[in-house]
Design brief:
The protein has 278 residues and is of the alpha+beta class. It folds into two domains: 78 residues, 434 Repressor (Amino-terminal Domain), CATH 1.10.260; 187 residues, Endonuclease Chain A (Endonuclease, Chain A), CATH 3.30.870.10. The chain is built from 13 helices and eight strands. The protein has an eight-stranded mixed β-sheet with strand order 1-7-6-5-2-3-4-8. A hairpin with a 3-residue loop joins strand 6 and strand 7. The mean pLDDT is 90.
Amino acid sequence: MTTDFQAGRVALGARLRELRTEAGLDGKGIAERLGWQRSKVSRLENGRQTASADDLDAWARAVGDPAEAADLRSRLRGLESQQRSWRRQLAVGHRGVQEKYVAEYRATTVVRGYEATVVPGLFQTPEYAHHLLLHNAELMRTPRDTEEAVRARMKRQEVLYEPGRAFRVLLWEGALHALPCPREVMAGQLDRLVGLIGMGNVYLGVVAFGVPLKLTPKHGFWIFDEKRVVVETIDTEHRLEGADDVALYGHVWDLLNESAVYGPRAHRLIARARASLR
């Protein structure tokens, strides 16, 4: 449990206590109204237990202020959105972060992802990954354990060949043309993408330039087993676990997928990007 998460849970408990005292109730009194054990009231108010959305609705009704439930639920969603600074995570280098993702992918059965500017780590060649990780280390001024991090990133890709998993990934066509590396490295990376088309458990779609869109793609995101979403910004990794957040990102993926092409049509877009390197 992160320190930020615990601090937020304590703050939520303090708000519950405040509502109880404003209603003129002691711990025993609100426990009786709710039909709970007194110990549960104590755990919630002292930040030792995470309230459910139903708990918060019941609390608001018990203190005679059902309208307060919306604010309490908002605070709970704030707990479910965990933010992890990249500077903190990369303080000792990239290898640890890459190994964390190895474990995360191995614990996941179905992954849905979208990337707008970069080929995702699951599909990267070692040379392409090397340049990206080196650029990031320079940006964040973190230790350069680039070669170890590349090996860990390649280790992550073993899940592509394990049975019982599915990877549904969308790429904005711009990611095929961006050059964070020398042209010859990008050529090899595009060849790698072509090789993934047709794999039994990999579904690679490309959202082409100029196609009608029902929304504008703003940033990349990854959905793991429809339980959590990971969004990476320049300085922070956001982990969203609220059901509403997961459903929202799932809907966004579905809308982008309506504009994506697969198979031979995706192959042609990749080939067009490769030809432009000449």
